[in-house]
Amino acid sequence: MNVIKIFIATLCLSLATAASAQLTKEQVKQRQEIKKSSKKVLQEKATKEARKEAKRLKKERWQTVPGALPLEKQVDKGLLMESEFDEDLFPRYIMGSGMSIGQNYDGAKMQAIELAKQDIAGQIQTEVTALIENSVSNNQLDPAQAETVTKSIMAGKSLISQSLGRVLPVLEIYRPADKKDKTNKNKEVMVRLAYDGKMAKIAAKKAARAGLEQEGQELQEKLDSLLGW
Predict the structure, then answer these.
(1) Beta carbons within 8 Å of 91's beta carbon, 6+ residues apart
(2) Residue 222: per-residue pLDDT
(3) Which of 64, 99, 101, 204 is placed for a possible disulfide with 128 were both Cys, Cβ 3.0 to 4.6 Å?
(4) CB-hemisphere CA count at 13 Å for 123?
(5) What is the reported pTM?
(6) 111: pLDDT strictly greater than 70
(7) Residue 98 CB-density burial (10 A; 0-12 exposed, 13-18 middle, 19+ buried)
(8) Using CB atoms within 10 A of its CB, is residue 153 exposed (0-12), middle (13-18) or buried (19+)?
């Protein structure tokens, strides 16, 4: 599968929900292909696709705020960040999107940011749980231990969201109400945020530890090793 198709699939600008925690063999293969690609090739393809995506968004009346990077640059930045994975094929950046509507731009933006953070928390759950599931096949954790840790992480979405540190703004665009409806003063705001993958593992580990206090030191130490604490 073309590397850029992977980018576009992950550049979903609506809120994402984690349907499955287990990375499929196809997903692993796709990520391996991305890692093997040279930075120059990735940048050239990402830039090309960014132009297409920006054109589509503009056609749908999305626009940037004054003083912000051009839409093409914002989309390009997000695509490149999504192409980075570590040695465990864990994303170097967890991406989250949020959208909100309101008459007050700043209020709608803040709500969109909170929704994007929740999206990031859900993505962290999915990625870390997949890492844990894959550790079973590598004999790093036995199935019972993996299940215990997974349950702790999946129950800790709120804690993960609250413990997020500095998020990186990747995309900020808005769409005014249809001009035909002169009584509607609302603005639709969409943001996309990135969160450092290493910090994501730490946030997940904190959430897991909260539910592992009764499980003993051994399991906590294995979690430390797995998540690279």
Answers:
(1) 82, 84, 85, 127, 197, 200
(2) 75
(3) 204
(4) 27
(5) 0.77
(6) yes
(7) buried
(8) buried
142 phi and psi angles, rounded to 5 deg: -85, 165
Tokens of 162: 């609250």
User: What's the rounded mean pLDDT across residues 50-60?
Assistant: 93
Cα-based angle 139, 142, 144 (whole degrees, multiple of 5): 165
pLDDT digits (tens, 9 = 90+) for 13-31: 333 333 344 566 777 788 8
Report how many helices (DSSP H) and strands (DSSP E) the chain contains, helices first: 9, 4
| C-alpha span between 65 and 173 (Å, rounded) | 7
Count CA within 13 A, CB hemisphere, residue 83. 27
Tokens of 196: 């450092």
Tens of pLDDT, residue by residue over 193-219, are: 999 999 988 888 888 777 676 666 777
Q: Is the pLDDT of residue 173 over 80?
A: yes
d(CA 192, CA 84): 17
Residues 14 and 144: their CA atoms lie apart, in Å, by 35
The interaxial angle of helices 71-82 and 39-59, nearest 10 deg, is 140
Map residue 212 onto helix, strand or coil: coil
